[in-house]
Specification:
With 173 residues, this protein is an alpha/beta fold. Helix 2 packs antiparallel against helix 3.
């Protein structure tokens, strides 16, 4: 079904009003990267047939050659909007995999919950623990297209989910 069709379907039914105050909160969560490649590993990638991989390696070698450190964390945005007790919208940066929405829906079952991705930042694929353990493009290969030094650490899902819970609980008080 297209979005327009879904909207038309909703408009054919009686709407439920959202009552109560609107609250919003935002938090930056430090997401850790896995082990940062060494200068030697980046140098090896300069010989890649893939031009994006070569640019990625050159970018991080330039940082190291300036005497700077490659960041080992990323400031990741988590935002929650609460519309009374009727609707909670969780906005997550980057392209989070569906595991996040499913887990939040399960854990915040008392909320009428919408989870939105690509909110406040487009920092790359944000794999869940399952995706990171399975490996593959989202977990291992996509970092070069977002100029991230390497894949995410295995605990990013827990950090993000914990931040959402913290914000939701704070808003209830």
């Amino acid at each position: 079904m297209t979005i327009a069709g879904a909207v038309a379907d909703v408009l054919r039914h009686e709407m439920k009003p959202i009552i109560g105050s609107i609250k919003c909160d935002y938090k930056l969560v430090d997401l850790a990267f896995a082990e940062i490649p060494s200068a030697g590993e980046f140098r090896k990638r300069l010989n890649s047939k893939n031009s994006t991989e070569r640019r990625h390696a050159r970018h991080f070698l330039d940082i190291l050659e300036k005497g700077e450190a490659i960041p080992n964390t990323y400031a990741y945005p988590v935002q929650v909007w609460r519309f009374g007790d009727d609707l909670t919208v969780v906005s997550l940066g980057g392209e989070v995999v569906v595991d996040y929405a499913l887990r939040l829906k399960r854990e915040l079952a008392t909320e009428n919950l919408w989870t939105i991705a690509f909110a406040n930042d487009v920092c790359g694929y944000i794999g869940s623990a399952r995706i990171l353990y399975e490996g593959g493009y989202e977990a291992d290969g996509s970092a070069i297209y977002y100029t991230l030094p390497t894949r995410w650490a295995y605990d990013v899902e827990e950090r993000i989910i914990s931040a959402v819970h913290e914000i939701v609980e704070k808003m209830k008080n």
